[in-house]
Structure formats: structure tokens, C-alpha cells
Amino acid sequence: MADFHQNGNIAQFHNLRQRPIEEMVYEIESYAQTRKISLVLPSLFSELEGPALANILKELSEVSYLHRIIIGLDRADEDQFRRAKDFFSVLPQDHVVLWNDSPRMTAYMEKLQGHGLAPQEPGKGKNMWTCMGYMIGCADTSVMALHDCDIVTYQKDMLARLVYPVVNPNFRYQLSKGYYPRIGDGKLNGRVTRLLVSPLLIALKKVIGDRDYIDYLRAFRYPLSGEFALRTGLVPDLRIPSDWGLEIGVLSEVWRNSGRHSVCQVEIADAYDHKHQDESEADAQGGLNRMSTDICKAIFRKLAADGTIFTANTFRALKATYYRIALDLLEFYDNDARMNGLTIDRHREEKTIELFAENIMAAGHVFLAKPNEAPFIPNWSRVNAAESGLVAELRGIVAADNAEFAAKPF
Questions:
Q1: How far is CA 147 from CA 212, 214, 361, in A?
Q2: Measured distance CA(281)–CA(393) in Å, rounded
Q3: EC no. (predicted)?
Q4: What pLDDT, in 10s, does the model give residues 320-358?
């Protein structure tokens, strides 16, 4: 059974296991009559052939309260788009596959580029941003939920617990963030949260002093989780990074726009596992190597926007402080794992900490060297201001792609 601790920074909702999930679902169904819920699934085509997505669709097929499912499909050619349409056709809900690589979408992005509004790199951030634009164009959704397509332990109860705080009109929360333990194959996972984000935030507090933003991020038990739901009034003004800083960026934007008391985190699973990234020590553009640098840059930029002054000496001190704290926390994680019959590879995790320490300096160097770098994709309010028909045009492109390219059986 979970604890009932509240940290005082954001609301925490625990799974105390006293309420039947069927009762919660019934309540969500009643709210969804007037507060439509859409689910966004950002997916690579390769995930259609992975071990998780077929079960996710099976579970989602039993969810009665969803108004629409928007699937953002990345890295797919025409044949793969047809196959994806067939793959997702098992969903009984209204759903649409948004083909990010279609000729129409490519031309649309070039048009946005002409306005200086296009995302600068492909990836989950761009995929999610485009799906958000399509949802805004539909203008019929009150709550948007999002989760990844590689969750091998997925159950439909996760979605119900995730959306409940923001679909309930008696609650004031604008964003609901999922949390859970990262456990799989007898191992304690979640390396980037455990070995980078947690010790980095502690180190930042020691080096630059108290900041409300640091306390806010530290309040999240799993700040990098890919599962969240929000009320769609926030969406047009949401500026998100296109890189691995996406999750931190979303939390930061909601904090800036709505305040921490508009945010809650919800325990959505007892155990959770999905695809694991390699460290990619030799490739600064891949795996946890790239991810850690992007996350650090996202945090540094937000702190700078709130008035923190960074220098090269700040980052040197931060690296040293982080390294010592990360090693201390590693011992705690190792003991916690052992007590629960799990394992971690101490040697490998210490090497990962060394990599992350170097990347704190690398992210700091990029931050100081490129102070004018635009870190966010322009929000949809700005897109609409640049040319009022662009949002409607996106919806038309998705409809045309789905009408032209029929589903193709596997």
C-alpha cells in the first residue's frame, strides 16, 4: 500500500487501493459526457513491431470514456502509413493517424519554416506538438492525455487514474503527471531520473541557493515520466522543447503559466517498464548521452529565464557537487534495491554518473556559448497569430492523408 505523504509543493494522489477502479471509471464516464477526453499516442513506426503496442491497443479498446485517439506516426513511408492505419483500426473509438512524414505534412512544415515557426528537429516533441495542433483544430476536447507507445506493463487503469484529477470539474488541477516505480526483469530502472535529475536538483540548490522552481521539480517523484493529462485551455500557450527536454519543458511551462497548485502527480501503477535507452558513451547525439545533455539544458534555461546568472565557474562547482551527491544517492538506491530483491549494476551506474557529470559541463558550455538559441517550438497561439488559417489547414491535411491512403493489411 502506498503512503499518504504530501510534500507541500504540488498535490500528490496515491493509490491507497480502497476504491474499486470500476467506480472511478463510472465517474469519469459521467464527466466525459460534457468534458471530452482525447488521448495522444506519439509513435514510431518501429513500435508497431515492438512487444508493447499491441497490448496497449487491446487495453485501450476497452476504454469507454475516450472521445478520440490521435496517433502521431513518425519515421514511416507511404506503405508503412497504410500498414499503421490497418494496425490501429482495431480501436473502436474515433481515431486518426497523423502521418508526420507525408508529402502534405512536409510541405506544411516548409510553410511554417517560412514564418520561422517550424520545429527545428524531428522527434517526440515535434510529434506531440503537431498532434496538439490537430486537436486544437478539432475544437471539441476538454482534456488531453498522453502516454508512450512502448509500455510493456500497460493496463487501462493507468489512464483512468491519470485523467481523473483533470476531468473532475470539482478539482482545480490543470496538469496531472503520472508516477510509478521503474522496475523490470528484477532490476531497478529509471536511471536518468535516479542518477541525473534527482542529484542535479539537489546540487543546484546547494550551488545557486533556494529557488521555487527547483523545489517544484524536486516535488515530482518521476519528473521524466511520459504520462500526463492536462486541460486543453493550456495547450495553445504551451511552449515545448523539441528534444529530450520535453517532459521537463512541459512541467516548466505549466508552472510558469498556472502555478504549482494547479499541478498534481498521480500514482498510476505498482510497476512500470518500457524500452530502455543505451548510454551511448561514444555518441553525444544518441541514447542517454544526448538525453542527459538536453535535460540539463532545459533546466538551466528555465532557471536563467527566472533570473539565475550562470558562469563557467558555476558549472564547474555544479559538476563537482553533483558528482558527490549522485554517488551518495547511488548507495541509497543500491540498498533499496537489495531490500526489495532487486539488483542494480553498481559499476555501470557509476560510469553513467561520470558520463552525466561531463554532460552537465557540456550542457553548460552550450548554454553559455549560444545564449540566443531558441529552445522551444513556437506555441500554437503564435502560429495562429502568424496566419489564422494554419491550424485549420493542419486538420485538413490529416483528413486528406487518411482519405487518400487506404489501410493495407500486414
A1: 28, 25, 31
A2: 42
A3: 2.4.1.266
A4: 999 999 999 999 999 999 999 999 999 999 999 999 999
